[in-house]
């Protein structure tokens, strides 16, 4: 019992009690605070999930969306209800079983998964319930550590005397081979690219920014040469735009060898 109380105290230190008291679904863990969250699509309605906030600034969302059901998804599903759910998820562009297994999404990925029409604005589109009202994350205290982490990265990069710039990168589709552009200007964008690179079965339909298929044309070669280098627009790769690891593009919670090695070296 004493250990449990210690863990609760550790999680409860992230925010003051009055900052969380009117939020719905608050759960304090050992090193995180979890709340109910959601994102609204004008076409599909509310996608409900749970958001975990960590002191490192990391944000993790576990999706619990089930179209037309307020009680959550039961594993005992009749043939008729399974068919209805599968059709509903199919119209949204998702696989039913994939949605059942969704876990640890970034806010940006959850925003896309919800079917939100105006994506890439997750701070305003993902909400929590406070006093019975939907409130955007940007207007809550929940982004406190996320914002501090971003500022810390910026200060660290400036102190090293270098202007950090991650150029755009391309990820190839496992089905059609077409390459899709990923911007790497923020930690969220870097994480989306990192996840895509780590998925051997990544395909066009997984593209996080727009709903596309393999039928969509890829960028022309003449356009691909422009990748956002601040030194030269058509740079093929230099010390100003090619990063070999920093706090913006490496993640302490990721178990891939690249991130594990980076985290170990930083601690050392």
From TrEMBL:
Record domain ULTRAPETALA1/2 zinc finger: where: 166-263
Top-level taxon in the UniProt lineage: Eukaryota
Domain named ULTRAPETALA1/2 SAND: residues: 23-146
InterPro entries: Developmental_reg_ULTRAPETALA, ULT1/2_SAND, ULT1/2_Znf
Record Pfam families: SAND_ULT1 (PF23292), zf_ULT1 (PF23293)
Protein name: Developmental regulator, ULTRAPETALA
Lineage: Eukaryota, Viridiplantae, Streptophyta, Embryophyta, Tracheophyta
